[in-house]
Amino acid sequence: MMRLLWIAPCAADRELIGGRLPGVAVETAPDGLTGLNALRGCSFDVVLADFPLPGWMPEELLEELGRISSLTPVVIRQRAGSVTEAVRMTKLGAYQFLSGEAGPAHLSQVLEAAVEERRTRELALFGEALGGLPWKSFLVGESRAMREIDEIVQLVGPRRCTVLIAGETGTGKEMVARALHMASPRAHLSMVAVNCTALPENLLEAELFGHVKGAFTGAFAQRVGRFEQAHHGTLFLDEIGDMPLETQAKLLRVLQEREFQRLGSSETIKVDVRVVAASNCDLIERIHQGRFREDLYYRLNVVPIRTPPLRERPSDIPVLVHHFAGRICRQEDLPPKHVPRETIERLKTYSWPGNVRQLENAIEKAVALSGTRQTLHPSDFALPSRAPRSAAAQLASSPLIAVPDEGLDFERTVSGIELHLLQEALRKCGGNKRRAAELLRLKRTTLTAKLRSLDAMAAAC
């Protein structure tokens, strides 16, 4: 549960919007002094300050909040704010500046990103305590694969080149991106993260590049985009494979020219941004499908990094378990939990299809279920005896075709199975060959060629 301190003079506004923020525990303060006292007496994940606030200028409140808790990110909201004011507040230390009306959905997204920023700051401090290399705290593991990533980050982090991180969901791609940011000279500024799948196609471009008032329906005020927010810092583009083609073209221009225009404006804005992108899908396959630009791929893939799934590095599970258990206990103000060897060995036998993210969630659940007990037992994790098998594995262990004693025509039988699969995929996709090809992990041209070949074979018979 996120803990939010909301400093705002309008109680009606706080109650109206605050009640529509899921997963957020809101403590309100009607003025700056009450807010400062609340922060002194309790720990909050993020502070939201609404202006105008009687008796306070934004920069004054920012400074006082920073003195009490330098780790807590502060979001400033000012309905009549300008782009110039947004840039100034960001430079003074505000995590983000919101102007105009911000609905519950957008506000939730900003607050969640701010909480991630707090986590980054905490890990950075932890890393500094371990040898003065804060980026190392983001790369937990001692396997060969993690040592290779560690070496790449150490070499590439200080550079400006773009990095493309590939890996399954939950393997820690964002942690690698944060390590790259903290290993760079840009570490004193925030890393701005954008999930390309979390926003509708028509809003992603405005999110990246910003817009002027009246640029489109609903653009009631100017907005600073993520590229401007990341000026002199790092921009992390997660799930880049889902970015629309039109936006890909504009992103390519920014990477090449280091400049862009806000939506609805002819003013050219120059930026110095280090871009790190990540994808859990095969971008080469997306290129063949015509869904990802080849020139953008090579522009992003200057330095490739692959985050391995957890099943490929089981030797890292003990380190990760102790890391997550310790952090969760500290967050919950609990005494440290002991994880015995039998529990570790049980966790190592599981394949973790959700990777590191699933392991972290399982440990959080185990800590909660263990109550006041100081030891985590295997039963606290309630893992299945084995991970769900893939469709291919199930087919392999339960063959659809038995070989009769008299034998069979191999080519004809295999062709029949292949045709059945193709027709079933087309049926599921309403006859759409492109979607059917994606469902079968084929190129569209390959699917079309197979259909023609099988039809010709059937006609010949």
Task: Quickly list its features.
single chain; 461 residues; alpha/beta; Rossmann fold; Helicase, Ruva Protein, domain 3; 4 domains; five-stranded parallel sheet; 19 helices; 46% helix
Describe this structure in words.
By secondary structure, the protein is an alpha/beta fold. The protein has four domains: 2-102, 3-Layer(aba) Sandwich (Rossmann fold), CATH 3.40.50; 151-307, P-loop containing nucleotide triphosphate hydrolases (Rossmann fold, 3-Layer(aba) Sandwich); 311-380, Helicase, Ruva Protein, domain 3 (Orthogonal Bundle); 408-460, Arc Repressor Mutant, subunit A, CATH 1.10.10. Helices cover 46% and strands 13% of the residues. The chain has 19 helices and twelve strands. It has helices at residues 11-18, 32-41, 58-68, 83-91, 104-128, 144-156, 173-182, 201-209, 226-229, 245-257, 283-288, 294-300, 317-331, 341-348, 355-369, 391-397, 410-428, 433-439, 444-460; strands at residues 2-7, 24-29, 46-51, 74-78, 96-99, 163-167, 191-195, 234-238, 259-261, 268-270, 274-279, 303-307. It is globular, with a radius of gyration of 26 Å. Residues 393-398 have low confidence and may be disordered.
